Amino acid sequence: MIGVLVTSVLGGLVVFATLGATGVPFAPRRAVWVGVGEFLPLVGGLSAGVRTVKVAFWRSIVAGIVTIVVLLV
User: Where in the chain are the domains?
Assistant: First the structure.
């Protein structure tokens, strides 16, 4: 349980830093969404990641591609 919590927090922080650096709006909200989504096995991370990438692509194509790469890594 602690390991899942740590990976969720780290995932949220990395997404927040990425979205903030690329200028995507609502970066804190998206980061919390990804962090909470990581708690759900299989579908949680995928659903949070897809929605976050959508918002990043609305900002710019470069922000979307960077976000995809960060979420895959």
Answer: 2-72
